[in-house]
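ugh ok so i messed up the first submission bc i forgot one of the chains. this is the corrected input, ALL of the components this time, i swear. 565 residues overall. if the numbers dont match what u have on ur side tell me asap before i send this to the collaborators (the ones from the other lab, u know who)
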Amino acid sequence: MSTLTREETLELIQEVLEVYPDKAKKERAKHLAVNDPTVEQSKKCIISNRKSLPGVMTVRGCAYAGSKGVVWGPIKDMIHISHGPVGCGQYSRAGRRNYYVGMTGINTFGTMNFTSDFQEKDIVFGGDKKLDKLISEIESLFPLSKGISVQSECPIGLIGDDIEAVAKKKSKELEKPVVPVRCEGFRGVSQSLGHHIANDAIRDWVIGNRDGDESFATTPYDVAVIGDYNIGGDAWSSRILLEEMGLRVVAQWSGDGTLSEMELTPKVKLNLIHCYRSMNYISRHMEVKYGVPWMEYNFFGPTKIAESLRKIAAFFDETIQAGAEQVIAKYTAEYEAIIAKYRPRLEGKRVMLYVGGLRPRHVIGAYEDLGMEVVGTGYEFGHNDDYDRTMKEMGNATLLYDDITGYEFEEFVKKVKPDLVGSGIKEKYIFQKMGIPFRQMHSWDYSGPYHGYDGFAIFARDMDMTINNPCWKQMRASWQQLATGEALPLAASA
Amino acid sequence: MPSVMIRKSDTGALLFYVAKKDMEETIASVETDTPEAWGGRVELTDGSQWYLDPISPPPRFPTTLRFTRAA
Ligand code: SF4
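and heres the new structure output, hopefully the right one now
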């Protein structure tokens, strides 16, 4: 049970908003809400996907980050050119920990950074010639790449380069797909539009490539895993469950994925979508154009896994349904042991989350399996449809915050006093210095996988390791030490 | 005139999705929904009204159609 009542939570929001000037207060008030699981439509109480206000700290990324970093980047056998100045690609290189198998630099290129390294003269005279040359160079150095994508950074749109023309020309020349992606950072309000643009580029340049080609032998049990970026091996620990229940995973989008897997996806029987936010667009497209239905699932924590496996199996025949039951039975002893071990250590602990994509709602079940409670959650770049889905998962009178600012997040944490905060690297050290256990939930704090039954074991261990770490009792000098067992007061408000 | 994707949800209700706006709503009522034609005034659960000249024969869902906002 949440310790705050609805009125207290409302008061807390008002209190936090108090410092803002009137205009900012009015704007930010729309992004903060107290959850009511009975409300069907989130837009009645929370506004999302709006431009962040200048002057407040936001942790959002740009459209380029959404396209290159999230959707395209993990496709391992293609080379993704960060077209523009060097920084955008270099500072985000390999940060998401999308694992893959292959020889980097030979047939896979996931952790490498390719950039056109724009200089002043490229801005003045245009970069199309440079791009042309760069693509030829890539071809001679990395002949085993299966295709190239051009990920535009801000200047490309500003100077009006015609990357589409270059891409068409080079694609003909090399006989490989060269995909221009118009994901300049200034488009949209967050990385979310980058996902959409990237999905549209896949729709226009990849999905139709094998239309009319029936040479791929299909089975009635073909599925594709969509929106799993294989962070720390997530897609692998999901995939084995699907395979064990008798399905054939034709494609992984896009963690450890390949171009040919994507091209084959319209031929599957069902698209399974994990990160709804970043890949619902392409799933909807495949449904309309190829009649491939899609289904959302959740592989965090045994309760949700079992629910999802059954839901997926219900789409297929009895053999798969029996398979799903077998898989659940097979892992029952394993996860019950995990819960028996960690639940007593984590029971009743309260968590606040602030992440992106699917996690603000998907991981709630995993925490609940460990006896923990999520008392606040929010999306960096969610839309209304995300909050619609979240409000049903969250408890009554819990906090919802959209595109929360650095200040608001700190204040909420000071007042709500959670036992764990799960957010990104930019928040990590602030909260750790406040003496609050913290997990970096974007790339699992260099751990993972967290999906599937195998992932749950690691998830439980990590949460225990963080919350029950003896270091939190050592945050004060020995002469100021509190009586053992007493909770540390949070750092005095700044 | 936004183009709208219409699909069936798990429960069989029709969902109304506007890609440009990332708006997903459930259709509450359709003016003409007969074996011969589908369309006319469409009301969503959020109260908004949309219009499409009835199509015959009725479209097979999922599909993309162009709607106009009805006052
Ligand atoms: S906003 Fe523009 S310059 Fe900044 S990282 Fe994104 S693409 Fe690069």
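quick check: Chain B has one domain: 3-69. that seems consistent at least. The pocket of iron/sulfur cluster is lined by residues A 62, 64, 88, 153-154, 185 (CB under 6 Å).
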